[in-house]
Amino acid sequence: MARWQQRMGGSSSDRALIHAFGVIRLMADRLNASQAIIDRANTLFKKMTDTRALRGRSTEANCAACLYIACSQEGAVRSFKEICAVCQSASRKQIGKSFKLIIRAVGTNVDLITTGDFMSRFCSNLDLD
After folding, report:
1. Nearest of 100, 29, 99 to residue 63 by alpha carbon
2. Which region holds residue 116: left if phi is over 0, alpha if psi is between -120 and 50, else beta?
3. What percentage of the chain has pLDDT greater than the value 70?
């Protein structure tokens, strides 16, 4: 058993963290998010794992919530609906609960999203420069 654990990359918490980073990267790729957003989401997830605030919750929901917060903090605002669309197994309700838990635990705030935040991205998608 110990030999198998060594081959698999260390402790179970390390393996879980590596898996979560992969999930964040996959979701970020679907959103066409930058590397800065991925790094911020990974840092936030690591911080939450260290405090053990997310225990017992869906990893994918936690990753999606971290990605949503990272997008907001980096100024690349995504709607909650967009985040839920790239998340395969977690429900909107699970992501929302994880989001609220992370906001409370970290003590950060996410600015209110307005339609102006989306305007430049939607216009460029429609070629309406």
Report:
1. 99
2. alpha
3. 79
Which residue has 């990893």 as its token pair? 59
pLDDT in tens, 75-126: 888 888 889 999 888 899 999 999 899 888 887 777 666 666 666 666 777 7
Which amino acid, residue 25?
Answer: R
At a CB cut-off of 8 Å and minimum separation 6, what does 86 contact?
Answer: 27, 30, 31, 64
Kindly report the pTM of this predicted structure.
0.80
Q: DSSP alpha helices (H): ranges in the chain?
A: 2-7, 12-31, 35-51, 59-74, 80-86, 92-106, 115-125
Structure token digits, residue 24: 């964040």
Mean pLDDT of 7-35: 85
Is the pLDDT score of 1 beyond 50?
no
Of 78, 90, 98, 96, the C-alpha closest to 31 is 78
13-18 — which CB contacts under 8 Å span 24+ positions? Answer: 13/49, 16/49, 16/59, 17/45, 17/46, 17/49
